[in-house]
């Protein structure tokens, strides 16, 4: 049993983790439709280098747009007549202390992160229920448990994703659909240079493995949960964080 | 899954049947050489070794009682003599002595803690040293959903299994700088001889009512999670507890 020839939808495909998810799925023989919001050039480059259009389709679409999410699913199902996996890898960061956080900042992050997950999930349920099979993996983070300075909106959204995933796991279990979350810890990303310079030494020291994770270290957990063989794992949150949070 | 454990050496305790057998076979199928530990079931262990070697895998049956620290050295010595090293320890062996606490004999508490908790601690201690030398190791401890939820009639078992979770997290913190990860897996209601023989149909149906996926799990479904955690791909996962239970617990 493997994901070879299976079909996946990935949101936030041009993000640091999204890119690893897309290329890892293709490497394992899956076919992928991913959406992205802004980075046209990167999406084009991915399509040019990772796989041809027989196996990889990029669609510029916003997870805040329910219609667009429905059409993402339509594209996958029309093209390949199946849909096996959903991986939500999109993100939106809009940091501020709570006292100064504007309504726009709250809405931006909650609408994209949490409501984005619910929209694409609703869209994939019908074909998965029809096939009586599905693997949904949402990406959350350490913030729901650890908190995140100036990231109350982000932490609230990620916490919401966990509660949503567990509830959905209960609802769709009768159709053989599993729903799990992967919770990355402190991950090195390209935009890290914008972080407070004390952040990386602090983060490195606080993690038992004494290093930040790489996006490519998150994806194996996603692929493990996406595999047909993981059919008895559902409603779980799997931290991949070097041992930072052991709750 | 495409996980390659070629060159790794694994010890699986209690591997002559049930979940342990399945773990041993899955690790071997991924390329690891496997020590099939057993306490009493010599013939069953030999059968596991035969089934692994018949498929081109490497395996050796070694008798040792996890509850008895004196036999840990024997187990370790047999492993390194046969395969030269030890990279993966799967603490799977366990016993049950079910009873309501009010009726539980002291021996029923002692036996379960001796094997399921104390034995695991001492065997892990013995195996850590060679892992530290290699600067690589995987300690995978099979706890139980009972360790998360408790269960009437299993207070001794629940205490031991919950203890294993705390133990595993502590090992994870002590060993992180040595390239050794430690994680626990909590199987839910798994279809083995132990569950089939011990439970009436009525009891089984009651248990299934609490499982969103509405079925018992298969030993192979636990084994897959073990293979994943044992692989290089899981190198940034440590101190975690993964329930493989059809959604029974969602902690």
UniProtKB/TrEMBL annotation, chain A:
Residue ranges annotated for the Ketoreductase domain, each copy included: 6-185
Residue ranges crossing the lipid bilayer per the database entry: none
Pfam families tied to this protein: adh_short_C2 (PF13561)
Recorded GO MF terms: oxidoreductase activity
Classification via SUPFAM superfamilies: NAD(P)-binding Rossmann-fold domains (SSF51735)
Keywords for this protein: Oxidoreductase
UniProt cross-references to InterPro entries, sorted A to Z: KR_dom, NAD(P)-bd_dom_sf, SDR, SDR_fam
Family membership noted in the UniProt record: Belongs to the short-chain dehydrogenases/reductases (SDR) family.
Protein name, per record: Ketoreductase domain-containing protein
């Amino acid at each position: 049993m493997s994901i070879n020839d299976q079909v996946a939808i990935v949101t936030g495909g041009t993000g640091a983790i999204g890119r690893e998810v897309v290329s890892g799925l293709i490497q394992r023989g899956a076919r992928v439709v991913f959406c992205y919001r802004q980075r046209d050039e990167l999406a084009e480059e991915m399509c040019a280098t990772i796989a041809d259009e027989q196996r990889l389709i990029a669609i510029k679409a916003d997870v805040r747009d329910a219609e667009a999410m429905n059409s993402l699913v339509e594209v996958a199902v029309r093209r390949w007549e199946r849909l096996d996996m959903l991986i939500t890898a999109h993100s939106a960061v809009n940091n501020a202390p709570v006292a100064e956080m504007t309504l726009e900042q709250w809405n931006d992050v909650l609408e994209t992160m949490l409501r984005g997950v619910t929209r694409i999930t609703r869209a994939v349920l019908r074909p998965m229920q029809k096939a009586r099979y599905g693997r949904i993996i949402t990406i959350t983070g350490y913030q729901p448990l650890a908190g995140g300075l100036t990231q109350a909106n982000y932490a609230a959204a990620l916490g919401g994703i966990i509660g949503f995933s567990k509830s959905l796991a209960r609802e769709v279990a009768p159709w053989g659909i599993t729903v799990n979350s992967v919770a990355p810890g402190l991950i090195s990303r390209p935009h890290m240079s914008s972080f407070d310079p004390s952040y990386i030494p602090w983060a490195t020291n606080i993690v038992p493995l004494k290093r930040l994770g790489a996006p490519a270290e998150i994806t194996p957990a996603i692929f493990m949960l996406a595999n047909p063989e993981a059919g008895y794992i559902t409603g779980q949150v799997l931290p991949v964080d070097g041992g930072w949070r052991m709750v | 899954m495409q996980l390659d454990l070629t060159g790794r050496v694994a010890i699986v305790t209690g591997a002559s049947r049930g979940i342990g057998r399945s773990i041993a076979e899955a690790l071997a199928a991924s390329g690891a050489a496997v020590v099939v530990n057993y306490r009493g079931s010599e013939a069953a262990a030999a059968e596991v070794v035969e089934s692994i070697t018949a498929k081109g895998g490497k395996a050796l049956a070694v008798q040792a009682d996890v509850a008895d620290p004196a036999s840990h050295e024997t187990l370790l010595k047999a492993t390194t003599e046969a395969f030269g090293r030890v990279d993966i320890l799967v603490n799977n062996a366990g016993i049950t002595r079910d009873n309501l606490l009010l009726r539980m004999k002291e021996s029923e508490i002692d036996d379960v803690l001796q094997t399921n908790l104390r034995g695991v601690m001492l065997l892990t201690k013995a195996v850590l040293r060679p892992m530290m030398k290699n600067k690589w190791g995987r300690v995978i401890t099979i706890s139980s959903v009972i360790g998360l939820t408790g269960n009437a009639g299993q207070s001794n078992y629940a205490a031991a299994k919950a203890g294993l979770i705390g133990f595993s997290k502590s090992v994870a913190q002590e060993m992180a700088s040595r390239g050794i990860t430690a994680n626990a897996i909590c199987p839910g209601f798994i279809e083995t001889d132990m569950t089939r023989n011990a439970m009436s149909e009525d009891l089984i149906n009651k248990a299934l009512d609490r499982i969103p996926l509405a079925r018992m799990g298969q030993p192979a479904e636990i084994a897959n999670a073990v293979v994943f955690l044992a692989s290089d791909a899981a190198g940034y996962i440590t101190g975690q507890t993964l329930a493989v239970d059809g959604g029974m617990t969602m902690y």
